[in-house]
Amino acid sequence: MYSTHSIHTFLESNTQSAIIDVRSEAEFNQGHIPGAKSISLLNNEERAIVGTTYKQEGNRKAVEKGFELVGAKFATYIEQAKSLAVNNKIHVYCWRGGLRSNIMAWLFSTAGFEVVLLKGGYKAFRNEAIKGTADKRNYLILGGKTGSGKTELLTYLRAKGEQVIDLEQLAHHKGSAFGGIGQESQVSNEQFENDLFMQLRACDASKTIWLENESRVIGGNKIPDALYLQMRQAKVIDLVLPIECRIERICKEYGNFSKELLEMATKKIEKKLGNLRMRQALTYLHNNELALWAEVLLGYYDDFYLYGMSKRDTSSIYTVQLNSCINEETAEIIRNIHTKEIAVDAVR
To answer: Are 119 and 5 in contact (CB under 8 A)?
Structure first.
């Protein structure tokens, strides 16, 4: 037989086990427990058929139709499970811990697997994720104008043992009109929240968690409201770098992409950039004068950044003036400032 675990026990016990989502492909793509693999008991079309049967003929006929559709595929499900199982262990869930996951749990346990079923299903996980991203934590925000190298600095800080959540990496987007260039397709907002929750869950809530200063929306993904409010109220280390360093970084980051792609992205901010600056930017781009193109764009993005910072409590902003581009030494300086509880009057 198989055992049934609450969401907390389920998540704690799955580190040495495969997680299998038995819902349809559409449900899985909308959102799933991070790390889960899909073995659909009913695919999209079959689920629609069973749903129609339920509405027209009732529950019993719907169950019969379901077994008619999937019974012949049980051997295939077992083979798929064999390829995914870790130490012969499988964790299984459906939407609410109902018939679909119970059928698959029975099937897998009958085939000899050690099976754990999630009580309450994916719905229980979503409730936990929504609550978990809202929990109070000790956030520290890394700010700085576009091109300051915040993401690189976060990478250095993580390597030095700091707790870091890279929201842009989770969103597969860098937040600006150019943020999707060179990135993977964005996941659904639901999946973004799930991935974020699991990373937050892995952090020690009693210690500092570093986040980059972000707008509420990163591409097509939205930071949960409760978390965003905490971010806006948290202390900010505001990096100030020479504009030459920022221009160099932008040219290095985007210079290998086609002019057509960069022009399309530039035109996304045409209304905010203004006709004159737009014409200047496109002229520089077409003439392959990327540094001048980047400088024009920074005029807009700097204004946008300063406006956002003006909405913060000034007593929570700690400005760090740097004379060179971001590197490992810079990261250690920032880390030392942090470990001294941001006693930075000397660099403020």
So the answer is: yes
Measured CA to CA, the distance from residue 267 to residue 96 in angstroms comes to 45
Question: Is 3-130's fold the same as 138-347's?
Answer: no
H or E stretch at 58: none
- Tens-place pLDDT, residues 54-99: 788 877 777 677 677 777 789 899 999 999 999 999 999 999 999 9
Q: How far apart are CA 199 and CA 202, in angstroms?
A: 5
pLDDT tens digits along 276-295: 999 999 999 999 999 999 99
Structural domain boundaries in the chain: 3-130, 138-347
Distances (CA, A) of 23 to 185, 186, 235, 268: 22, 21, 42, 38
CA-CA distances (angstroms) from residue 312 to 213, 238, 327? Answer: 12, 12, 28
Nearest to 133 by CA among 167, 98, 173: 167
Helix (H) or strand (E) holding 244: helix 243-254
Question: What type of residue is 32?
Answer: H
User: Regarding the domain with residue range 3-130, which homologous superfamily does it belong to in the CATH classification?
Assistant: Rhodanese-like domain (3.40.250.10)
Element (DSSP H or E) covering residue 312: none
Catalytic residue numbers, as ranges: 94
Instruction: Please give the model's pTM, rounded to 2 decimal places.
Output: 0.90
The distance from CA 260 to its chain's CA centroid, rounded to whole angstroms, is 28
CATH match for 138-347 among 3.30.310, 3.40.50, 3.90.930, 3.30.70: 3.40.50
Q: Which phi and psi (to 5°) does residue 213 adopt?
A: -65, 120
